[in-house]
Specification:
This protein is mostly helical. Helices cover 86% and strands 0% of the residues. The chain has one domain. InterPro entries: YuzK.
């Protein structure tokens, strides 16, 4: 899990757990990625129903 966290967000889990601001940055990025994926999914779904 440590490698995945570092690869995805550029910090290790220990730093993520220790530093609140870093944790908030990661969570904001995750939320942004989630919203983008939902938007893309909706767009693709709409295009395939035509």
């Amino acid at each position: 899990m440590e490698k995945a966290m570092h690869h995805s967000h550029g910090i290790g889990y220990a730093e993520y757990a220790r530093k609140h601001e870093k944790r908030m940055d990661v969570e904001r990025a995750r939320e942004n990625d989630y919203r983008k994926s939902q938007s893309l999914y909706a767009k693709i779904t709409k295009q395939t129903k035509k």
